[in-house]
Amino acid sequence: MRKLTIKKKIILWFAIAIFVLSAASTALTFVISRSVLDQSIQERLIEIVEYNADEIEFNNSLSSVDKEPSDFYISYNGGVLEIDDDFCDYLDGVCTALIDKDNFLIYGETPFHLDKESAFSFTSVGTIEHRGQKYYIYEKPLTGNNLNGLWLRGFISENEVVNILYNVARISLWFIPLFGVFTLLGGYVLTRRSFAPIEKISNAAKEISESGDLSRRIDLKAGEDELHQLAQTYNKMFERLEKTFNAEKQFTSDASHELRTPMAVIKAQCEYALQFAESEDDYKEALEVIQRQNDRMSSLLSQLLFFTRLENRSDTFKLVETDLSQLVASIGEERRILLDDSSELTLDVESGIKYTIDESLMSRLVINLLDNAFKYSPDHPCVSLSLKESESQITLSVSDRGQGITEENLEKIWNRFYQEDSSRNEEGSFGLGLSMVKEIAAFHGGQMSVQSSPGTGSTFTLTLPKKI
Ligand code: ADP
User: Fold this and answer.
1) Helices 159-211/226-276 angle, 10° precision
2) Atom of ligand 1 nearest to the CA of 404
3) What is the extent of the structural domain holding 335?
4) I want to staple 464 with a disulfide (CB 3.0 to 4.6 A). Which of 79, 125, 155, 446 is the partner?
5) Domain boundary residue among 165, 186, 204?
6) What pLDDT shows up at residue 428?
């Protein structure tokens, strides 16, 4: 059973369900039909016997009778019994017999004769067995002019019911398989159609996993059902996987590129010093270059390491409830001390704002944003740092009136190693600052956003949701 495909399991389930349902409904039909038929046969028996009772008349003498050739005349009790030709001694399975009080058959049909003990005790419909067969019986005493003492006795065999049921069974036996085959065919077509998209999804997933080509998508025609939605979800997932995978590839290649350059410089400096250096100054100069490149490499490596620790939510970072206002204000004040006369930093920090943060990470975020604000404001930097609290969130903003960012680059600035102007490649500047800021924001459950236009300046905002 476990090895069967879902399609086969559904069809099998359909087949069993249809069989059980049909069998159950046929059995139910039998039970209901049986009781309905029993009832209607008893009614038929009473109706025919009652009808026949009206067809018997007593006349005092034969001469007083207006004789009909088709009627039947029997001498009885000093007169004549006139039995109309409408009297049905056998009709629709019902036999009717005229009996006198001594249980003698005067006229009519009877399938068997009743003994004296059982006779005259069926004034309502009863049952009686004869030679292994069941009969319904009904007896009616005749009343009226000299008819007292005469009885009508009606019989109908239970076979009448059984025959009808037998016919019902025969019809059902034809219909159950027909109905079954029809439903199974319908089920097969329906499941085949419904499962076609699943086959497509599974084939696409298989091809992607075998070929590693994440640019492939599941090709389904437009539709609204659950499977089409699943395919769309898969396609979105593949899209995100492709993006992440490409970003990882880009990151690895950028990181190795960033490391290769200082290594090449170090190698060149070593070769130069070994071959051409003549004086102590030559060696000193070469060693200074090597030291700078080495510092650059270790700065990059420590930033990469920091990223890894942040992504892995390393235990080094501890979330503690902190006075954020105090922290932000003190970073701003310290920064202000270092500024020259041409630069300006405005602080607008609401006091008493508390949040659960890792102090070292949050400091890094603020310092990074401030560094960028000054770095990308070429003349007379004018930066403002603000911290505000509303009912639902805390916002920290760093604004500058610097060079700004073009709209097409607004998304890219968060990517690792992205630098709008890579020629600026300063010491320790690798285009990792903003992606680190974004990671730190996410670490605290917050989000970063930027508003900027070239020539006007930029505002970087961290939004921290307030926990209710
Ligand atoms: P880095 O500063 O080391 O280049 P970042 O990740 O901090 O790297 O910034 C990425 C890029 O975003 C920068 O190269 C710069 O082009 C742009 N950028 C960041 N901050 C600002 C800012 N305040 N004003 C204008 N451009 C900015």
Assistant:
1) 20
2) 25
3) 320-465
4) 446
5) 165
6) 62
